[in-house]
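Need residues for this backbone.
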């Protein structure tokens, strides 16, 4: 009897997967596009912040030195 229930559950899962395949594929594309766009925006923001910090510090060497002094507490 438990085998009959298991087969019935498996057939129901297969029917649901087939009917929702196209909808979930479209949702996946939207989610992937949104994540990629957000990642690009954050990446541009990071580059702008690092560039601004280097300009304010006087260059990359001074920025690294200031960062080390801030972290070590010197």
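Answer:
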């Amino acid at each position: 009897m438990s085998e009959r229930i298991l087969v019935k559950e498996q057939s129901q899962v297969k029917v649901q997967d087939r009917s929702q395949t196209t909808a979930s594929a479209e949702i996946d594309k939207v989610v992937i596009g949104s994540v990629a766009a957000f990642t690009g925006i954050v990446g541009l923001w990071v580059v702008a912040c690092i560039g601004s910090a280097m300009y304010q510090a006087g260059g990359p060497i001074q920025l690294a030195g200031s960062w080390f002094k801030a972290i070590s507490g010197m």
